[in-house]
């Protein structure tokens, strides 16, 4: 039987990407189209499928490797006739362009590249309890935004949500509660810094119950507001667990209480069009013991107490944000990360500044290390590690009072009987969509975490508006609305740590890896009057402009990053500049108020342009 190389096919804009998951091992029998590895850029993750069926002979890559088109993933013994000559399979194609699109560059949301088979929809002949123009499944930022926009456009909308409150992960157990806690932590840290300004406070007295109550009040205010807005818009909320029973019908098993307790009651909702916004959930490592001392982000946000020693499994944004909160409250932190750095996706120079400021929170930062086992003991959770790559060091096992699993989130696509509606779901539970957010079934759309990376609320909301507009346009014969599409150039990312780290568009590391010539304007906050006045001048603001010969010295902004307090509040300006195709003069000549941190964006542009007078003169 021939042995062939399975190579990375054309992966479009993903010039060089890191392997974050290896899904097969030597000896495995695999099918054609089966996913082999998952790769990730800062914008998206995608699975690379096998072009052939066969038995894996040898893996040629490992976790953390950087690969590109043509890299050999593995060798495969195959029975496929003509396999030796056959090219590698391309990942599922990029989204089809929508009608009437402004010809911008490729949309920021990368497709989930894994192919999915189109199932045949079941035929449903029962009677419906409710009918509507648009059924929205899931009440998170994607779902409620879609429902509200569709209602505002005059459609009859039913929104199905299994929990008691709207808002999904973001409002209930994600963005908002984490920021409520992070704000308190930042104020506590800030107060600590005031000693240097001659003001001393005593050590803080922490009431965990009081803090939890504060967080719940914040969440309640926002979710209560959503319920009121749904009412104002006459959106019908059906509480329960939804599963498709046909291409135009959803069954809802009614739920009650604060969890998802089923009442036994059922309702059928029939719809003309549907928007799937069922979100994602935290990944749980299979070997982690069932123990209250092992939590995911939801468990960490429940704030049951402050551990002495805490392990953060996964050095991404969610883990580091939660770690910041717990460490300010008194926990000592360890973090374990398989890749070679924390906060992947952000430029290393920005992360370095954050890491220096935060070094005191950590006892151990274990990079290129994997967690291979854990045991619940009376003393704590004993966790075993191993080097993630050959020749690396294996740290000794450690025992923790709390282990936070923050190793990623997995989409809920496989839990909604999407196949009964004919909607294709990938092996990993994602739903592929085009840039109008349409699934393989023309009248069913999908948005938010369930359609892919980046799993961020602001992406979900924008996708939601697109889906609602396209649907309204099609139902009402409004061509302008029907042409709506998700063609954002960039989607900003923010780590709301202290200092915050925010970035958008091309990063400097990507520019280097992809051989893109950029002109950099880097403004150090040590030259910012406001940052110095705030006692927080460790930050930098960095802008990257196209410096290719075609740009003739007037290159447009391609990306930017900020590390510093309130970086997240400022990154939107850089996103706007990228969307508008601004160059260094546009940004530098825009008058920013003085003294502000936002001014640093104008100054970074002036530095790129060579006209900044707030820093020493550039060396000739
Ligand atoms: P979700 O918010 O997951 O909502 C899906 C909804 O569908 C849920 O309410 C769920 O109950 C419901 N549902 C699912 N299946 C069914 C079913 N079968 N029947 C009925 N209902 C169903 N993003 C940011 O942009 N900024 C941040 O600062 C940020 N911080 C985060 C912090 C944490 C700790 C976490 C975990 C996430 C954070 N995120 C943040 C990510 C953000 O929460 C998600 O990207 C966002 O919530 C996705 O919205 P969604 O509508 O796609 O899905």
Automatic annotation (TrEMBL):
Enzyme nomenclature, EC number: 1.8.1.4
Bound cofactor: record note: Binds 1 FAD per subunit.
UniProt keyword annotations, A-Z: Disulfide bond, FAD, Flavoprotein, Lipoyl, NAD, Oxidoreductase, Redox-active center
Comp. bias (Low complexity): 84-98, 105-116
Sequence segments annotated as region (Disordered): 84-120
Cofactor or coenzyme needed: (R)-lipoate; FAD
SUPFAM superfamilies, alphabetized: FAD/NAD(P)-binding domain, FAD/NAD-linked reductases, dimerisation (C-terminal) domain, Single hybrid motif
Protein name, as recorded: Dihydrolipoyl dehydrogenase
Organism taxonomic ancestry: Bacteria, Pseudomonadati, Pseudomonadota, Betaproteobacteria, Burkholderiales
Gene (name only): lpdA
